[in-house]
Amino acid sequence: MIQNDEAIIEKLYSHLTNEFPRLEFKVKTPLKELFPEPENKWLKSFWKNNSHADIAVFRHNKLVAIIEPGGWYHAKDKKQKVRDSKKDKICKINGVNCLRIFNNVVNNDLDNPKFRKLLKKSCYGLVWRG
């Protein structure tokens, strides 16, 4: 069954709030509420223009990660790839994990032990260096 992005985000949000009750999660939060204004012009316009984090993860009131579920278009669509790279860059500049998850993982593998370990790593603020 194919679900729209809103349904996927809601399913993942519900799972996260049950799996990690000590963390706080916010849905569809504008980047300009999460991060300071970037100096880079390429990132600044993206930051200003209603860009958002699908799910923002907070630990002890500090943003530690954003989680971005998405469909096939995140890997295939050039414009979407540019938007994703800008969001990734803003996160990296601010020391925040950006975890991208394909929708089929949300639909089928939320209880997979490897996926749970990845979520735990991301949600508890271990910043990936890559």
Notes on the protein architecture:
With 130 residues, the chain is of the alpha+beta class. The protein has a single domain, classed as Endonuclease, Chain A. It contains 7 helices and 4 strands; from the N terminus they run αβααββααβαα. It has helices at 5-19, 31-34, 41-48, 73-76, 78-93, 103-108, 113-123, and strands spanning 24-30, 52-59, 62-70, 97-102. Strands 1-2-3-4 form a 4-stranded mixed beta sheet, with helices on both faces. β2 (52-59) and β3 form a beta hairpin. α3 (41-48) crosses α5 (78-93). The chain is globular. It starts with a helix and ends in a 7-residue tail after the last helix. The model has no long low-confidence stretch (mean pLDDT 86).
Structural descriptors:
23% strand; single chain; globular; 130 residues
Gyration radius over CA: 14 Å
Low-confidence stretches: none
CATH C-level class is Alpha Beta
What is the CATH architecture assignment? 3-Layer(aba) Sandwich
Order of helices and strands: HEHHEEHHEHH
Tally the beta strands.
4
Distance between the termini: 34 Å
Secondary-structure-derived class: alpha+beta
The residue-averaged pLDDT reads 86
* DSSP helical segment count: 7
Can you tell me the CATH topology? Endonuclease, Chain A
Query: In one word, what is the shape?
Result: globular
How would you concisely characterize the structure shown here?
By secondary structure, this protein is an alpha+beta fold. It has helices at residues 5-19, 31-34, 41-48, 73-76, 78-93, 103-108, 113-123; strands at residues 24-30, 52-59, 62-70, 97-102.
